[in-house]
Specification:
Strand content: under 5%
Radius of gyration: 23 Å
Structural class: mainly alpha
Mean pLDDT: 75
Low-confidence stretches: 224-230, 235-241
Number of domains: 1
Largest sheet: none
Shape: globular
Number of helices: 11
Length: 243
Amino acid sequence: MEILAGLAFGFVGSLHCVGMCGPLVLALPLGGASRARLAAGRTLYHLGRVITYALIGAAVGTFGGKLLLPLLQQRLSVVAGATVLLAAVAPALVRKAGEAKLLGALTARVSGWMGRLLREKSLPTMLGLGMLNGLLPCGFVYVALAAALVTGSTLGGTLFMAGFGLGTVPAMLSVSLFPGIFPAPARARLARVLPAFSVAVGVLLIVRGLNLGIPYVSPKFAAPVVEQAAPDCCGGAEEGARH
């Protein structure tokens, strides 16, 4: 179920990826290679992205699983949805997060590694570039991670983010192999789609946490079971006998 949700999420939102990451994909090496080698290189690049997303999803899902006690599961979903909504209506907050000292240092380091790899023209380089690209700050990825967090398990987070990465591949691969299909003005317009998509995801996460009993959309969360010690029948009988 998680991988299908991730696939749908990534596919619908991949237009944003085209707008934001299209220029980077077009700048990848192997530009003068044969069509077969070019396709192989681009495929490895996107495989690298999927691997990184899956690994991050595993970490986020594991963390969410530690928090998803019965009493906290609804609240976590609502908080994640509210955070996504806030980021959609106030994108400056996402940019500020990207500029934070620790994250900024990581971004600079990753960008430096990518710059060195961009000068290479080997197929393994393309896999490495894709894996590094998956570490770069991205508002769309943050929204996906919020959904992966609510899965509440290592496997769930892994499958959701792997599906998310795979869902973005068709559009991104089209940009690589057929550059004219998404010209620069079209990519700029597509980049404006993310806020509306983020709002929809945020609302869905909030509805999910409202415990409305709607299958798949807002399932009923089980109340915590409090175990009570059973009365000691034998002990009670012996006590009565003594009296």
